[in-house]
Amino acid sequence: MSARLIDGKAVAAEIRTRIAGEVASFLARTGKVPHLAAVLVGDDPASAVYVRNKQTACEKAGLKSTLHRLSVTTTTEQLLELIAQLNADPDTHGILVQLPLPAQIDSQHVLDAVTPLKDVDCFHAENVGLMVQGRPRFLPCTPSGCQQLLIHAAVETAGKHAVVLGRSEIVGKPMAMLLVQKGQAADATVTICHSRTQNLAEIVKQADIIIAAIGKPQFVTANMVKPGATVIDVGINRVGDKLVGDVDFDAVKEIAGAITPVPGGVGPMTIAMLLQNTLRAAQIQVGASQT
Ligand code: GUN
Question: Ligand 1 within 6 A of 141 CB?
Fold first, then answer.
């Protein structure tokens, strides 16, 4: 293996330790524990695992988490009613609605209903707008987790060509916005590739930094990677009984300069950033009510 391994598990553990300290000081100062409400609708096993991991991480860092588990037949109106209650509850600082929601639910309507001050996923249009303008209230969890990995691995991004594979609202679009902004692990020249992109392999081959978030197992092959490039793999795909990323890790690690593994790369960082956002949400809300 020639590439440096970027160990997301280790970086996330460091960040979680820092957050635990900040949560303790927040409690000492305000008497309040930052509190995340996680909403899980239906019985998708993968979503249940993700939510459980998020709750465990909260508890380990001293944050409170409450799971609201709703049946697979829940209606949009019923979910909106729960969101309204959580919005109004001064003891709840962050609200996370695990996606995907069952098909009968109007997901956009539900996400729009989360009050922006508690929107720890940074999905609300107000928070996305603030982030795009470079004055973020919250940073989107997975993209900011990727950015933290670039910082930690001391990857030069200024003036470099970053290629983001995927244009999802959760990862691709916000990732591109963070990379193009002024600042640390940013100032990049950014290209977004997606399912309609022509000559995709040639474009990816020009990248100094590849962020793969396309949701296709082992899509990025060694022949698409410039020698020495940094490869951040956001994908989590189940193939048989194995989890693989969007990058053909075994082949690409021989070409890349640095690479994240799956699992143990971006996944733990998403959770660490969620904790960060929940603490921030509590700081914003409790701070505002005390002034
Ligand atoms: N489903 C997959 N990733 C995410 C995420 O980051 N947040 C939420 N709420 N749901 C998801």
Answer: yes
